[in-house]
């Protein structure tokens, strides 16, 4: 879809004028957050999605009037539904609201879609979500969290720290935050005219996909780590690294870069940064590092126990105790990055550590979805081998001695093929693996090839002594769990696509059984 990259509304107009905004792809996590930001600022928001499924699925909304769509597209304006302040409309040119100021769209919308053509015919400006966010937060001090893994959780942790420190930031996070009950929020100056010293803060999850994060101008930039990913955007590691280098080069004067010290690619990017660079790392003990080689923020003695984790945090000659209410050693890395970023804007480390003790996570990140037939249900967004490994290790640490059944939907054929051996090694950590056909998403790959790619995963896992099965649909996995699951099992779904819907169906079955 062609985007106009010119400024659509100056930031001061955004605050002074009430706008009528249409968001395309409203069911996506990013557009959900954008809708919340706009609603928070008092604007009129309309949303459309080509799939017309349950709106804002991350909220698990059960209200019937919020989950149905108008049956007739021509009657969309009259019979539209509102969800958290957003009017939901059918995906149809006839449903385009009158007098729109701007349309914000995902890049997945095709240029030849009838809706796209109708918007162009009406001379309605259409811009990409990152451009829109850059304009909204242009006068904020932007705390931009980038990296291959942990962006959403680190952004949510940083938002919660600032919230508990009395800073009440704006935020854009790619998942629903349980503690602040939103994924997007808009805050401006408390009173009087804005000034550089009093500029409000905005925590922005900043994705490298198609170099989207280059729209932002960070005052604090965070790189949680860099691994190969987004193979349809970056043909090699060098092009990926160049994008991250450009991201930090766009930082404002006097900015701070927070980066992971044990990630060589992050360190290489940090060496090109013109501002102050701050490193963080997690190690077993201080004896592992000489004083000269230590990171600026060093976590030692990390322990993951049950559904919590803890460590000792060392910075500037002081030691702090960090206790998290979320599981997994990877969350200690996320927490240290968030603490360092918060400190860059003046938050005391002790305050930050205390705040994270009451942080309860985000949706689809080791999300406990309840129980079914005595089984414990967990949903996670993991779709990269590293994230899968960390998730399954966390499950094993939290529930030792229990059988782990993992359902996985590979996301994108290119990623599945390029990281094939890594996927096999990570998935093998589960006792039983139920694999769906690859979810191709934006790729032009046949369903047959998606099935074959997943079949190769199953074959490789079984050849290595694993127990893996290929399933054609979510319904088949639900039936498998319904009939073969045991009361002591841990059932974890993983993937960036639709595997979370398995839990929705299990919940419906529980509700039907309770009524019967």
Automatic annotation (TrEMBL):
Ranges for domain Mur ligase N-terminal catalytic: 24-140
Entries under SUPFAM superfamilies matching the protein: MurCD N-terminal domain (SSF51984), MurD-like peptide ligases, catalytic domain (SSF53623), MurD-like peptide ligases, peptide-binding domain (SSF53244)
Enzyme Commission (EC) number: 6.3.2.-
Domain Mur ligase central: 145-342
GO biological process: cell division; cell wall organization; peptidoglycan biosynthetic process; regulation of cell shape
Record key words, sorted: ATP-binding, Cell cycle, Cell division, Cell shape, Cell wall biogenesis/degradation, Ligase, Nucleotide-binding, Peptidoglycan synthesis
Keyword Ribosomal protein: no
Residues annotated as domain Mur ligase C-terminal: 364-497
Record bears the keyword Ribosomal protein: no
Molecular-function annotations in GO: acid-amino acid ligase activity; ATP binding
Pfam family, any one: Mur_ligase
Transmembrane regions listed in the UniProt entry: none
PANTHER family reported for this sequence: UDP-N-ACETYLMURAMATE--L-ALANINE LIGASE, UDP-N-ACETYLMURAMATE--L-ALANINE LIGASE-RELATED
Name of protein: UDP-N-acetylmuramate:L-alanyl-gamma-D-glutamyl-meso-diaminopimelate ligase
